[in-house]
Amino acid sequence: MATLVIDIIYLFFAFISIYFTILFFLLFAKQRKSFHKMPEMKSFPSLSIIIPAYNEANSIASTIRAVKNLQYPKKPEVIVVDDGSTDETFKISSVFNGIKVFRKKNGGKASALNFGLKHAKGELVACIDADGHPKQDALLKSVPFFTDSGVAAVTAAIYARSPQTVVERLQNIEYTMIGWARKLLEALDSIYVTPGPLSIYKTSILKSVGGFDEKNVTEDIEIAWRLLYNGYKIKMAPDAEVYTRAPVSMKNWWRQRMRWNIGGMQTTMKYKGALLKKSFGSLGTFILPFFSLSYILSIVGISFFFYILFKTFADFAQFSKYIIALGGNPTSYFNFIALSDIFAVFGTIMFVLSIIWVIFALTSMKKDIGGLKSIPYLLLYLSLYVTVFPLNLIHSSIRFLQGKHGWQLYSNVSK
Amino acid sequence: MLASDNMNGSIFIKTGLITIVIFLAGLGVGFWLDNLRASSIEQRLLDTELNFNDARLQNLLYKNLDEKTCNDALKANIDFNSKIYQQGIEIEKLEQVNRFAPQILQEKKRYALLQLQFYLNALDLRERCNFNYSTAIYFYSHYNTTLEQAQNAQSAALVELIQECKGFTVIPLPTDLDISAIEFIKDKYEIKKAPTILINEKTVLEGLQTKSKLKGLINC
Question: What domains, with CATH codes, occur in chain A?
Fold first, then answer.
């Protein structure tokens, strides 16, 4: 009976996982030719750039330089908001001419963005993390998406800046795939995040929905959901590139992902009332179910993995205990190891689909992640990395249930 | 918005259909693999059955076995024991992964009966050729999963004894597969629980038994 229940849960897990993978493949097939297409824009609107900064003395100067180098037909207004830094962030920022530098009491990234928003005069407002380095043409390749009057925000493709460590390289692969998936979700009006390294908003709309949520640890997820909740659209500009500092160690990566997960959970709870309601468009009919299922699938998937792993070790330990007591040889256990079963068949199907997913993503984003040298990292990504992530999700869920999700806990975590 | 909804609806339905096709294909492969393995076991059991009948008929043909024929028959018996024991393990492994081939249980019953036939043949050979090798019947539970690793360990220990002690013959019999011949043997030797080992039709040992203890009771 227990075996039957486990089989049914596993097959359900496999079905849903395959469903979402195929959905992305179909979205890709549909958008393949128009993937890099950009609308034409005759007159570019005025634009303000907000850089929220907290203890960013090491990176703020290079970010301001990158921002000042941005190509745009009208000179953008650049606003740096020092969110109560205790280092030299304010002093370093103040050295630059032609930008506005404000200092405020520490209140978190969202409060710094809202502060900047109050002072922004542009029709559009671009929010750039203090460690974000947008490519020179990033604005030219993203602002034209605002030609559609229903568009409230445009996001860019994020990449890791000069990835060196294994963790950074793995994230570079992941960022590339996230960017690809985000572009595909555009077809379903389901872009669920306007990432901090570079996202551009229509100022009037952003102000009308109340700005950023200062209580949420991932204000970039929450604002995206609020825009969709209010019936606005979000677009993705895959050729507008921004480079950010990815966490260099597993410890930093772990904390960053906890912030992302907890923020996602906070946002899911905030908008749970929209679940499966058509009146909230894709937020209710796709994003909320997709997010909720993703949490469940990740946890079910990792539970299965550990169940099988634990059972194998437990069986071997139990067998060894008995065979040693009987005076036999423990290696004879391997005679009893089972052959591949239906679990393995579906595991193989899902693994093959994952490889196809990665190939599609990397080729269509036209991003060189290191050619053949990247193969070990890709394999590492598909095996170890995707296994560790659900563990982080479990840890995040525990922290979330304990109520540990104030922005103060994550104020110095990588974006 | 309506057109977009229709487009989205159609892509979700298309996705669902493709997923169902892939899912069914996956189940089909699983079904095919299970049946392939079940057929392979069935074929091997059939071959074993033929070999066994061949050996048994030889025994019947030669009423008075001379020394050479006895030695040949013993060698054939040892080979047969090793082969049939290995097949038992294969069936056990197949049972663990089998989802779609219920005939495996039937194969297991056939295998148990074949084991019994082999056991009777081994007893006959021992008597007629005046051999002094030992026989053991290993009674185990098919359904009690809590005993799985303990029974596997006992089984592995017995395999090691088969390799170490020339002529030692072991017959594993499931106690709970509702086979009347096995029930008869259980009644005759008062076998109450699994695992239990019956040595040379005389000594009944309940529970797990060490190799050294078994060695002391058999001719090794």
Answer: 2-25+288-410 (no CATH), 40-250 (3.90.550.10)
